[in-house]
Specification:
Length: about 475
């Protein structure tokens, strides 16, 4: 365990803590100024900080602010001989773990330090889970906007509604919101409301009392109670049955609920994060979703982009999933060739990130070599290769036309048609070794027409690699 840092300019206070912490077998370090502690913070991090509030050369509140900027979960206990309300408020507003007035009882101070150590260890465990948990990856502007939204919500308890297609990572975003919230040390409970039969969903959410229905042999706590103090993630909220929408609205309105068959209200201290792939506004218009519940859920909305909208992230995600699958299977990671990366980046991937992850796992198991090319992809991915290739060059042609129009060029149709014909005829002649009859057959042109176009387009002069012959 890391040491507890004691920071006080009063030598007698440092001496008291030294003797007390030695007796309690608690590792510690002593500092006489805030600046001395800040310098040490560059090379090591304590488990807990106990600092005086008034010291020459830098106050404990300034130190608290600097520590909170770098290590927001590090507990800081502020102590002072000036036991006034203003100092206490300033300490807590600055994020102090606790406020210890001088003179203090030594046993009380030790109890306070031990509580702070326990809290610090819990925060360390949460941080480890967050670091090893699923990652949200993305460099596309649309994903950066999602990251910014998560960042803005780090100190919020507000209800959040996440919109996104299936497979875009809605639960990962919900988990990130939880892990970076004040509720991070409490449970994160997820439930897919569309995957549970209607008759069981009420009991799953709210629990039931013994004998509430046939088969209820004992009392059961529901997801709301399991998530107490933490976050409840309701996935596919758009499919929730109408009667349960009413019960959920009641919980969000007054903060209380009843177990199935119960008569005593239970207070719910839970943050709700909901997600759906559906257009809830449209479902409200159709009478399939309660408008008042929609407004209760729609406090903060985060829209997750589809993979079609962030194609530039596909190479990054593919490398990550290939490496992940290799670690899980204990094999060498597969690598996509440039052609395969380009091909996948132009693929629509209707299953979004989940589909890409499944593909990478399939490749890790099934691809014959380390380097994965287009022909190594599953048959269903290669079936539309020709259509995708056509779509790609048409898209490039459209972009070139748009650029020419934006530049104000004239005679665009004639010039681009000449470039198109020149490229097509040159490639056909190169393919046939310059044999015009064969090339004209492949292109669907008469031999005389091909000869005329070769002369008009000056193909032999433009491309010395093409040698035409009869």
């Amino acid at each position: 365990m890391k040491p507890v840092w004691i920071i006080d300019d009063d030598r007698s206070i440092r001496w008291v803590f030294e003797k007390t912490l030695m007796r309690e077998d608690i590792s510690f370090k002593l500092f006489s100024s805030a600046q001395e502690a800040l310098s040490a913070l560059n090379s090591s991090v304590p488990q807990v900080v106990v600092s005086d509030i008034r010291m020459p050369g830098g106050s404990g509140l300034d130190l608290l602010q600097r520590i909170r900027e770098r290590y927001p979960n590090l507990p800081v206990i502020i102590m002072t001989a000036y036991s006034d309300l203003e100092s206490a408020i300033a300490a807590f507003q600055g994020g102090a773990f606790e406020y210890l007035p001088k003179p203090f009882d030594v046993d009380h101070a030790v109890d306070l330090i031990r509580r702070a150590m326990e809290e610090s260890l819990r925060q360390d465990e949460v941080s480890e889970v967050a670091e090893t948990g699923p990652e949200i990856l993305g460099q596309a502007p649309s994903m950066q906007e999602v990251f910014r939204a998560i960042g803005r919500l780090t100190q919020s308890h507000a209800t959040v509604l996440i919109n996104g297609e299936s497979g875009t990572g809605k639960e990962l975003v919900a988990l990130a919101l939880h892990r970076h919230s004040p509720r991070a040390a409490k449970p994160f409970i997820a439930i897919n409301t569309a995957a549970i039969p209607k008759d069981l969903l009420e009991s799953e959410l709210f629990g039931h009392e013994r004998g509430a229905f046939t088969g209820a042999q004992s009392m059961r706590r529901g997801r709301f109670e399991q998530a107490e103090g933490g976050t409840l993630f309701l996935d596919e909220i758009g499919d929730m049955p109408p009667d349960l929408q009413t019960r959920l609205l009641r919980v969000l309105s007054d903060g209380n609920f009843y177990r199935v068959g119960g008569h005593q209200p239970i207070k719910a201290n839970v943050r709700i994060i909901a997600a759906t792939h559906q257009d809830l506004e449209n479902r409200v218009k159709q009478g399939l979703f309660r408008e008042d519940l929609f407004h209760r859920l729609n406090v903060i909305r985060i829209r997750l982009p589809s993979l079609r909208e962030r194609r530039e992230d596909i190479p990054l995600l593919a490398r990550h999933f290939l490496a992940k699958s290799a670690r899980e299977l204990g094999v060498e990671p597969k690598r996509l060739t440039d052609a395969a990366v380009k091909y996948l980046s132009n693929h629509d991937l209707p299953g979004n990130v989940r589909q890409l992850e499944n593909l990478c796992h399939w490749l890790t198991v099934m691809a014959p070599g380390v380097n994965v090319d287009i022909q190594d992809l599953p048959p269903e991915f290669r079936a539309d290769q020709r259509a995708m290739t056509t779509e790609t060059w048409i898209s490039a042609l459209e972009r070139e036309a748009e650029n020419a129009l934006n530049r104000g060029e004239q005679n665009i149709m004639h010039e681009m048609a000449r470039q198109f014909e020149r490229a097509l005829i040159s490639k056909a002649l190169a393919h046939t070794g310059g044999r015009r009859i064969e090339a004209s057959h492949l292109l669907g042109l008469g031999r005389n027409t091909l000869t005329r176009k070769i002369q008009e387009l000056d193909i032999e002069g433009k491309d010395a690699a093409v040698r035409v012959s009869e």
